[in-house]
Amino acid sequence: MAAVAADPAAAAIPASAEEKETQREAMPDLDEQWRQVENGRERPLRAGESWFLVEQHWYKQWEVYVKGGDQDANTFPGCINNSGLFEDQINWHLREGLLEGDDYVLLPMTSWNYLVSWYGLEDDQPPIERKVIEVSGIRKVELYPIELLLVQHSDMETALTIQFSHSDSLDLVLQTAREQFLVEPQEDTRLWVKNSEGSLDRLCNTQITLLDASLETGQLVIMETRNKDGTWPSAQLCGMNNMPEEDEDFQGQPGICGLTNLGNTCFMNSALQCLSNVPQLTEYFLNNRYLEELNFRNPLGMKGELAEAYADLVKQTWSGYHRSIVPNVFKNKVGHFASQFLGYQQHDSQELLSFLLDGLHEDLNRVKNKEYVELCDGAGRPDLEVAQEAWQNHKRRNDSVIVDTFHGLFKSTLVCPDCGNVSVTFDPFCYLSVPLPVSSRRVLEVFFVPMDPRRKPEQVGREYGNTMKDM
Questions:
Q1: 37, 30 in Cβ contact below 8 A?
Q2: N or C end of the chain: which has fewer CB within 10 A?
Q3: Which of 329, 318, 331 has the alpha carbon at shortest distance from 257?
């Protein structure tokens, strides 16, 4: 549930006395009205569904009317009037301290729709819709939703007051902000929240609820929009701008972008350039498919931080607005999770690549709960059948874009020298060490020393085979 507090939705009501009279004639009899409304009230609450508030005074008058049995009685309640529940009739905020049974009754959507269709709703009054939330296993109707102040990073002065349920996800907050601030579909955005100390915290996991994120009424939520060059405005304010001044007006071919060495970090830059030119992986990040698969709860991952840092780097590299960038933010993120890469010394490129691929895999692993899987043996079955079973078992615990792109199976065959039993297994791999090719012929410098002492030794350079006979 998301609603702009200053723009309530007006309910449809009859426009004239004549229409009201026609509406009354279309009502079911009083006993049927009572049955339809009360049957809905008796069912249990279900998390996520909507219930509506009706002022106790109006509802009691309606009860007297329908129980009296006279459809033309003077006790006719008229349009639903909830004015006594509102603090004001501008923002339509509810009064504090309202109690169910004393001030209002709760009706499910079906019962509410019946009453509105029969009696209508007072002019300009919004329906008071509230969601059922579940807290510590207890379901209850959320009477007072959270009111957040939404602003854009580029305009901190213009704030919109929006109501959300505690059970709404942060993704709904983000989508609502995008709609309210007219953000284009292709633009990337993210959320920050101002905490009680006045500093800003990133709201990384947009799949959790506002209750889990500990957001409260009155908090300022800031939507940040990515720059066209792939950077974030907040990074520039923190002095982490990766774009040199002379490149501000540059526009070149996407992907043709250098990485500046930070000390002896050519080992990292060479690995990043290789990964950046893997089409499947780069398109995955450029098209924002990674956002749907970030795994924030994987104990083997980096809470999505490494994947987000790599995504930022890819978007900057492929924006076409850089001749070169300084990957200091990515370098700091790698050093934060792998202390061996702290500093600016030389390291092994394959070691960095191994850490990066493993980290991206765990940050993007689609498997949330890894199950125990037993290793399978060939047992005489065809290789295709054994390989398919091994791959399916592997993906029951490991399923990500890294697995889709880089993982494979390595066939191992063991033969028992005593009984001759053959065991065939297929083991997953991400890195495969292969030997360098060795030529069957080689060039050697040979000193020829004749048996005749009167002749001088000679140095002869020739291409020979692998045997002494060839030489």
A1: no
A2: C
A3: 318
Do 68 and 74 form a contact (C-beta atoms < 8 A)?
Answer: no
**Strand-strand pairing, 129-135 and 408-415:** unpaired
pLDDT on residue 8:
36
Is the confidence at residue 6, as pLDDT, over 80? no
Instruction: Please write the tens of the pLDDT for every residue from 359-393.
Output: 999 999 999 988 888 777 777 788 898 999 999 99
Measured between alpha carbons, how far is 463 from 425 in angstroms, rounded to an integer? Answer: 43
**CA distances to 334, 403, 407, 429 from 358, in Å:** 12, 10, 11, 12
- Which pLDDT tens digit goes with each residue over 146-176? 999 999 999 999 999 998 988 889 999 999 9
11-18 long-range Cβ contacts below 8 angstroms, 24+ apart: 11/116, 11/120, 11/121, 11/125, 11/126, 11/127, 12/116, 13/79, 13/116, 13/120, 13/121, 13/122, 13/123, 14/120
Q: Is the backbone of residue 258 left (phi > 0), alpha (psi -120 to 50) or beta?
A: beta
User: Which amino acid, 14?
Assistant: P
Question: Looking at per-residue confidence, does 380 or 305 come out higher?
Answer: 305
Q: Which of 164, 162, 94, 161 is nearest to 126 (CA)?
A: 94
Run of H or E including 405? helix 401-406
Higher per-residue pLDDT: 43 or 354: 354
Cβ(307)–Cβ(315) below 8 Å? no
Please give the domain boundaries of the chain with CATH numbers for all domains: 2-141 (3.30.2230.10), 146-225 (3.10.20.90), 233-363 (3.90.70.10), 383-429 (no CATH)
Query: What tokens appear for 67 in the block?
Result: 């129980």
